[in-house]
Every structure is written in structure tokens, then in C-alpha cells.
Amino acid sequence: MSVALFTLGGTIAMAGTSTGGPGGPVVARLTGADLVAAVPGLDTLGVPLEVQDAQAVPSANLTFAQLLDLVDAAAKAVAAGAHGVVVTQGTDTIEESAYLVDLVWPHPEPFVLTGAMRNPTLAGPDGPANLLAAARVAASPAARELGALVVLNDEVHAARWVRKAHATSTGAFASPDTGPLGHVIEGEVRILTRPPRRTPLRTDRSRAPRVALHTVTLDDDAALLPRLADTHQGLVVAGFGVGHVPSELAPVLGDLATRMPVVLTSRTGGGSVLRHTYGAIGSETDLQRRGLINGGLLDPYKARILLRLLLASGAGRDEIAAAFAEHA
Ligand code: ASP
Description:
By secondary structure, this protein is an alpha/beta fold.
């Protein structure tokens, strides 16, 4: 029995440079072996970590292609006998990469992503504790059949619901609609709730569709929107509240929806876009009538991941709407 550990960089793997001096800026350069060596008590896990260094980058630099390659490498590790997978990466994009993995990971073995909020040069870095907790979850039978999970601060979050909700706190991760699925308590993995798995999506690397995200703001004239279909293949709108936009934008979005899929989400950070409550121009009922697809409970960032994967697989509008009905 083993756990496969893949490293992608991020704060958890950052250290100073010789030119930066003590207290200077840090960059991603620690290896998986360095990370493992810094974890006290890893031997109590009773399971070896098989380390593969994949990238050493800030998570802002990660791409869909790199993450899909990582999923392939993780699938190979599982086929070779790993009981679970841990990935260390930057926390800035972990909510997006975890959801991407979750949508395509078909295996029962847990796929756990973790990182750190305090880099290893600071007092009280959280990386070692997060890596140990992530390894415990990856090795735990209780975490099987849960898809991709994000483990930080001894909390186990479903990739589908987790968000980075604070810029610096070690308790930066939250699942506003559900709370965490479980916790790591005195080294024991306690899963309290088990959301059903969705059908995994097929992937196609030959296409890299561009999906834009437009957050609607007060007095927004969205001057960039009308020409978007010339450069992009899909759009996610982060609307006000339950999925509303200024009335002036409604026909612009309706026109775009005749040319590419446009998904309606909420910019609030919790709760769902509604379906049939408000009737004004620019309301959720009006926008759906104009052809926008309801993003339901998916936040704008996750809706963008889902739409991009669907477009890459060649899905048409009906298939995309059906997938959002299932996943959102
Ligand atoms: N900016 C860093 C990154 O996402 C933050 C982190 O690692 O937590 O790579």
C-alpha cells in the first residue's frame, strides 16, 4: 500500500533565493523529498509516499493541459497500486484545479489536493500539517468514492463546493453551501457526509476553447461583451444576487447566447441562481428565456471549468445544458 505524491509548487514549496537574503521574497523551488522531510510524524501514517515532482510554479501559472497530464500520471499510479493520490500546489487556484480533477477522475481512490498559506520560511508554516492530513485522507478507506478533495487546516472539503475565502488566513478554505465533508481529528479521518458522485466527463486535449468570465457590476455597460463571440467559444456571467444583470445587458447576453453557450451564475459566493422567481428585464427568468444556461449552485469559477471541459469535448448546446442540469 502506498500514496502517490505529486508536487506542483505553490507556497508550500517556496523558499528564499540566494540573492533575496533572509526575509526576502520566496519562490517555488522545494522538491517533494524536501516537503516530506519537513513533516513530523509522517512515519505514523504507516504508508509510504511515492514522490513525483511535476512542476515548481506559482499556481497562477498552472494550465488545463498540465492538470490533465497530472490526472493521467495519477491514474497510472493508482493502476500500479497506489491507494490514493496527494497533490501539493499553490492555494490560489486550488479550488479550480480540484474541480477540474473532480470532473474527470473516474477512480474510487481519493485524489487529495493541499497547499499552505504560510511559506516554510515563516513562523508556524502550515504546509507540513496540511501534507500530513492530506496523506491521511488519501490513505483512508473512508475517503474512497468521494472524487477530488481539498484538505487544509484539518478540514476535508469537496472539490465541488470549496472556495478560497481569505487571502492570508490559515483557515482560508470554506464550503459556503455545505461546510466541510469531514475533518482530521487526532490523526483520524472522519467523513461526516458523502455527496453522490456525478458521471465523469470525457476529455479531449485537441481543443483549448476560450471561456470568458464577466462579473456584472453597478452601472455596467459591458462594452467588451458584444464582440466576445469573435474571440471566445463560451461565456460565464457572474450576475448580481440570484442571477440578475442591468436590463441594458439582457439583449446583449441574449444575442451572445445565440452564438455560444452563456452560463448564468451568482457573484455572491454562496447559494444558487434562481429559476422562476423574478420577472424583470435582466432577471433570471428573462435571461433563461433569452437562452442563458442556469449555473445553479456552481460558483462562476467552477462553472467556467465545467463549460471549458464540455466545449473541449465537442459538446453542443443541449449537451452542455444537460450537463449543467446534472452538475449544478
Ligand atoms: N500564490 C501562491 C500560489 O498559489 C499561494 C499559495 O501557494 O498558496 O502558488
